[in-house]
Here is the input.
Amino acid sequence: MLQNTNQDQLEAVLLALTDLIFEVSRDGWIRDCRLPDDSRLRVKPEHFLGKRISEVAPGPAARVIMNAIDQAAEHGRYSGARCCLDTQDGPAWFKLSAAAKGEGEPAGRSVVVLLRDITDQKRSVDRYRAIFETTGTATLFFEHDGTITLANEEFAKLAGYPREEIEGKKTWMEFIDVSYLPMMLRYHLLRSTDPDAAPRAYETRVVSRSGRRHDILITISRIPESTQRVASFLDITERKRTETQMFRAEKMASLGQIVAGVAHEINNPNSFIRFNLPILRRYLEAMRPVLDCAKHDDPDLVLLQMPYQDFWADVTRLIETMEHGSQRITDIVSELRAHVKNGEDEEPRPARLDTIIGTVVALIGKQVQSLVRRFDVEIEAGLPPCPMKAGRIEQVLINLLLNAGQAADKEDSRVLLSVRQSQDGRWIELRVADNGCGIPEDALHRIFEPFYTSKSRDAGTGLGLSIAQRILAEHGGRLEVVSHVGEGSTFTACLPVFGPAEKEGRP
Here is the structure.
């Protein structure tokens, strides 16, 4: 094997190597081999001599070795492949290199194959890889330029890409929300000069392949004596949503107390108006005979620059208007109190939807009319009562109507609330339709997700439709939507004529 002029020096070098060295013909016959005494294989060279690679190596390993032999014979050398061989101590891994020996056509060349034992190294890598994969958080390694060199499966799930499309091909910057990117780049540069100059952990936002945004607590550390960093991403999206819900729940509870207090303060002066207006009416009626006498003596009697008859008609109209306004104040305060309670303590009772719709229109009708040119209500006659929590159904209608009013953005904007019984008689269908902008198809499946909204931060929280859907589900009903971009949307709230319990007991 390798017969050169300085044979003794070559023999000394080969004996000093810890690698397995084989001379193999192009067709796979082993012509010579050298094995170190402490080889993991624990066999003598005679075990291999005169045999084919396929006889001494398992199928997958034999294919890898023969491919290396073919490549080396064709191109002169080959390296980088790995193979696994069975030993008395279990599977052993080897890194493989090959070089063509001698001159002549590739078909006639023999090849020297070197197998370097990397079993311990691979076991160590596998052990660290197992730890890397089971940290419970999305983790990655990246270079100074941001290129991701290693990513675990959790990060692949978070990003929405397979690992083979991430490692060595993408930078961490590609996954960060643009509003957070300047801050993170500043920290990245600071960390390059002084590891303690930038915070080690802070909040950011990751955008996945599908466009979904995740609130993240990121922790970054530099690897000593290396240009690499390691970063872990803890998804805190749900935690932040829960915190937001708790904050809003407390805010609503506080708002309820405020509304109750304001209602009380409004009711006090309104009570004076309500009780004093009938007295004022009686006073005026008592004065009328005197005025009639004055009119009889002076047929052209004028009061406050008005003929007597017009004056008296105007006074009567003013008192009636004030009485009506006072009653409206009383009704609105009552509805506000009922709405703040939100039906939480309410038991399902048979209720008529036309009554509930009247209450809702009294509460927000003016607001909807200020948003659109036409607001129409169509209620089918003879609708049966439905068992429901009236306050909760009011909440559903208020949300649907306000959404429709905000979406109807054309000059001939219109919102239509229609109520009818289904043909089979099992459902009452409340439809809220608008002729506005419509909902894009890619957003249509997300509109019932909590906190998803296409409105600005100040205009909506993204909770309304989610809550409406849940309320209807509690009533044994459902919420459906049909929408076309540029034409408008129709939301249909279906309520069972019979409640969930009654429905189950019916044939």
Observations:
- The chain has 13 helices and 19 strands.
- The mean pLDDT is 82.
- The two ends are 92 Å apart (CA to CA).
